[in-house]
Amino acid sequence: MNVDDVVLSFTPGSLTLLNIVLGLIMLGIALDTAPSDFRAVVKHPKPFIVAILAQLFLLPIVTFALTLVLPVTASMAMGMILVACCPPGNISQVLTHRAGGNVALSVSMTAVGNLLYIIAMPLSIAFWGSLHPAASEVLRQVALDPVKMLLEIVLIIGLPFAVGLLVRAKLPEIAARAHPFVKWFSLIALVGFILVALVGNWSVFVSVLGIIVLVVTVHDAVALALGYGTAALGGLGTRERKAITFEVGIRNAGLGLGLVFAFFDGLGGMAIVAGWWGIWDIIAGLIVAGLWARHTRRRAGEATGDATGRAQVPSS
C-alpha cells in the first residue's frame, strides 16, 4: 500500500480530545516561561535574531531542497516541511545544558520562538507546501485553508499559551505546581494517540521504516549543522553556538504530529515522518550533546594540565 494513501482516521470525539491535548502541551510550555525570558531577548537581541533567521527562513528553505533530492513521497515531503515549520522543542534546553552551552539564551529563544510560531507556523506550512510540486497536491486534497488553520491554531494553541504566560506572571507558585502535571499528562496523552496510530497501521509503518530512518537522519543532521553554521557565521561565542545548534536542530515534532491528525486528516506519510523525527531528534541530540560535553571536559583538562606543567617548570 502506498503510504500517501494511508489515512489514520479518528472519531470526532477523539479529534476534540486531541485538540485539548495540543492546548495542554502549549499551556505546559507557557507555565515554565517567565517574563524575564522575554526581557533577556530585548537586552541581547543578536543571538535571537540569528536563531530566528535560521529557524523561520533557512531551515524551511533547506528542507524544501532536501524534499526534492531525497527519495520521498508527497506526504513524506509534506511531513518534512511540517516538522521544519514547527517551533523549537523544550528539550533543546536540556541538551544545551548537557553540552555546556548558554542555557539562559536557550530558554529565552524557546519562549519567544513559541510565541512567534503561533502565527508563523501555519503560514509557513501553507507557503512551502504550496510551492512543492508533489506536496502541493496533498494540500489540495485536504483543502487546507491557511487562514482557517491560523485562526484554529490561535484558538487551540495560542490561547492556552497566553493563559499559561498570564498564570506564570501573576501566580508563579500555582504555575510551578501545575507545570509538572500538565507537562506529563499532555505527553502521555499524545503518546497514546501515537500508539493507536502505530497499532492500527503497523504493516505500513514497517514497510517504509527504512526510507524514513534515512530521510529523518539526514534531515535532522542538516538542521543541527545549520544551527551551528548560522551561529558561527553570526560571530557568536562557543556557548551561544551550542544553544543555537539545538534551538534550530530540535523541533517540537510531537506538536507537529498532533497537527497532522488535527489538520491533515492523519495522513500516513506525514505522521510517520513526524513520529520518527520525535524519537530520533532526542537520540541525535543526546549524542551530539554528549560528544560536545566530552570534548569540553577534555579541553578543560588539557588547559589545566598545561597550566600545572608550566607552574612546575623550574626557573633557569
N-to-C span: 81 Å
Strand content: under 5%
Mean pLDDT: 82
Low-confidence stretches: none
The third-level CATH topology is Na+/H+ antiporter like fold
- Percent helix, as a range, is over 70%
Structural class: mainly alpha
Please give the radius of gyration in angstroms. Answer: 21 Å
CATH architecture: Up-down Bundle
Task: Using the coordinates above, name the CATH class.
Answer: Mainly Alpha
Global geometry: globular
| Number of DSSP strand runs | 0
Number of helices: 13
What's the helix and strand layout?
Elements: H1 12-31, H2 35-43, H3 45-69, H4 74-84, H5 91-99, H6 103-131, H7 135-142, H8 146-170, H9 172-200, H10 202-233, H11 238-249, H12 253-263, H13 268-312
Q: What would you note in describing this structure?
A:
The protein is mainly alpha-helical. The chain has a single domain (3-306), classed as Na+/H+ antiporter like fold, CATH 1.20.1530.20. It is 84% helix and 0% strand. It has 13 helices and no strands. Helix 1 runs antiparallel to helix 9 (172-200), helix 3 (45-69) packs antiparallel against helix 4 and helix 3 (45-69) packs across helix 10. The protein is globular and about 55 Å long.
List the main descriptive attributes of the protein structure presented here.
single chain; 316 residues; Na+/H+ antiporter like fold
Quick overview:
The protein is mainly alpha-helical and 316 residues long.
